[in-house]
Design a protein that fits this description.
Blueprint: E1 4-8, H1 20-31, E2 34-42, H2 47-50, H3 57-76, E3 83-90, H4 92-103, E4 107-111, H5 118-123, H6 126-133, E5 137-141
Parallel strand pairs: 1-2, 1-4, 2-3, 4-5
Helix pairs in contact: 4-6
Length: 142
Amino acid sequence: MYNKILLAIDLNHKASWQKALPVALELCRAHEASLFIVTVLPDFGLPLVGGFFPKDFAVKARKAFSDNLREFVKEMVPKDVKVQRVVADGKPYEAILRVAKKQGVDLIVMSSHKRKRLEDYVLGTNALRVVQQSKRSVMIVR
């Protein structure tokens, strides 16, 4: 039923993967599917904001995200699961949808964790936006 499963995580928030990772791994094993673990390098919004960071900041940030994701996969994903790591850029929900489309995934798995930030209440959660805009099946793990 599923050949490619995408798991969206935020490495800085354990709640984003603590319950969703075991579900994604179980689905991968049950369907002999590949797992795409996606984390998103945040978009700093206005181009003006980028001027406050050193010129090589983006390159160093991407390398740090990639290194952290590699360590996460090494520690948390068993060897019997085929996994690919993806570091995407931009707004989290847009990046998740973009990667899902590019990789041709069948299912997106996400956690419904809540953060205590004003923007989550005003704009809605990334999970909600992925559910609303995805053309693929989405599983929200609570």
